[in-house]
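U., I forgot to send this yesterday:
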Amino acid sequence: MKNITRIALAAPLALALAACGGNKTEDTATADGGTEAASPMAAGDYPSIGAEARTAVKYDGTYTQTAADGTTSSLTLNSADESYTMTDAAGVETSGNYNWYSDNSRILIKSGDETMVYGIADGVIYKMESADAPMTAIGAENAYVRN
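Result:
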């Protein structure tokens, strides 16, 4: 009899918890009356750049960034040969090899005279202003999220 009472009390609690969970995203209205899908991560949910991300984070894959104007850029990383493929908002694709910064938490991608720095986190890559920028000075606007 005690077990039936426990189950009867636990069932509503389990249903309430199930209703609160999940990864549902809600659409937001745009200025032209359309809708755009919300990011699967809220700004406060973005992980910080990991210490020794080179070995502590599984970072292979394609990451996408959607700008405020709706254009997207992507960056694909392959740890096996330390190669990348980058597609900018205009659809221009570049590829090559990246190098690890000395802290093993950031990568450097050289394109012509420009060196781009990306901090590696779990499921997110952050484009940083420079190799000297503090790893805590990052925001969702600089985030490329893994697909």
